[in-house]
């Protein structure tokens, strides 16, 4: 169903998005779900009491979409308390005990508490792991990016994601070099910039070899994020783009 060569456009599922989509099949949010090839369930935006049923609810709305589940910490753009980072294993256990579960789980690089135990839980349900890094101040150096990829490889995780703030157009170049050098080592790979200078990279990263990017369903959830309908049109035209300037022009016109 899901292949290495497919390019995935992921939209974020929070409580507002899910409620709107479930209540109205012609709501713009519901239509956005249909054009996303992946959906990231942001468990931290929901009450824990309903976490076990979220995958099934999303599957009913968008059975075609690959699911990524994450409990994002505050310091990584979420709402889950940073100080509770090391108590998430029982929460993952409940999520993975449900009848339906996400295809992937996303865990921050600096919070790999009980990683082996989580891997054991995930393997039982055939769920794969993405190790992610979020940097809201800068793009890491080439050496830092290389070390990140090597750390994820040593863990044996098949997915890697990095989202980093671009403070200039040139900042994206390090991410593109990173993609070219390491994307083939992973089944799922995302590396793009945040902020205005990172907007083009959310599309061009796929030209460089990444296979996962993100768009906004409803309100923008991250700096420089682009609405899902625009991202979907960009992906449809991906083979026609031959330069970053062409993508910049496209995004400026949409």
Question: What secondary-structure arrangement, pairings included, does this model have?
Answer:
Elements (H helix, E strand, L loop, with lengths): L7 E6 L1 H9 L4 H8 L2 E5 L11 H8 L4 E5 L18 H8 L7 E5 L6 H10 L3 E8 L6 H14 L3 E7 L5 H12 L5 E7 L6 H8 L3 E4 L12 H9 L7 H10 L1
Parallel strand pairs: 1-2, 1-8, 2-3, 3-4, 4-5, 5-6, 6-7
Helix pairs in contact: 1-2, 4-5, 6-7
CATH class categorisation? Alpha Beta
Number of helices: 10
The SSE string, one letter per element, is: EHHEHEHEHEHEHEHEHH
Our measurement of the CA-to-CA distance between the termini, rounded to an integer number of angstroms, reads 31 Å
Q: Strand order of the main beta sheet, please?
A: 7-6-5-4-3-2-1-8
Mean pLDDT level? 91
Give the second-level CATH assignment, the architecture.
Alpha-Beta Barrel
Helix content: 25-40%
Question: Can you tell me about this structure?
Answer:
- The chain has about 250 residues and is an alpha/beta fold.
- The protein has a single domain (about 10-254), classed as Alpha-Beta Barrel (TIM Barrel), CATH 3.20.20.
- Helix content is about 40%, strand content about 20%.
- An 8-stranded parallel beta sheet has the order 7-6-5-4-3-2-1-8.
- Helix 3 links the parallel strand 2 and strand 3.
- The protein is globular and about 45 Å long.
- The protein starts with 7 loop residues before the first strand and ends with a helix.
- The mean pLDDT is about 90.
């Amino acid at each position: 169903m899901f292949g290495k060569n497919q390019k995935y456009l992921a939209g974020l599922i929070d409580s507002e998005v899910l409620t709107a989509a479930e209540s109205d099949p012609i709501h713009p949010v519901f239509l956005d779900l249909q054009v996303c090839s992946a959906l990231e369930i942001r468990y931290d935006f929901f009450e824990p009491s309903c976490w076990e049923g979220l995958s099934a609810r999303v599957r009913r709305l968008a059975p075609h979409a690959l699911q990524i589940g994450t409990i994002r910490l505050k310091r990584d753009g979420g709402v889950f308390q940073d100080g509770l980072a090391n108590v998430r294993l029982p929460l993952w256990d409940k999520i993975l005990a449900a009848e339906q579960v996400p295809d992937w789980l996303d865990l921050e690089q600096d919070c790999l508490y009980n990683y082996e135990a989580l891997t054991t839980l995930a393997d039982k349900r055939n769920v794969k792991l993405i190790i992610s890094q979020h940097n809201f101040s800068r793009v890491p150096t080439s050496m830092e990016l290389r070390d990140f990829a090597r750390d994820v490889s040593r863990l044996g995780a098949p997915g890697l994601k990095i989202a980093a703030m671009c403070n200039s157009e040139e900042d994206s170049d390090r991410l593109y070099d990173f993609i070219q050098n390491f994307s083939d080592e992973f089944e799922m790979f995302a590396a793009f910039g945040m902020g205005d200078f990172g907007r083009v990279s959310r599309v061009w990263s796929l030209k460089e070899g990444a296979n996962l990017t993100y768009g906004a369903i409803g309100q923008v959830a991250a700096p420089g994020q682009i609405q899902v309908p625009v991202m979907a049109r960009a992906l449809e035209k991906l083979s026609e783009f031959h330069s970053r300037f062409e993508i910049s022009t496209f995004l400026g016109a949409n």
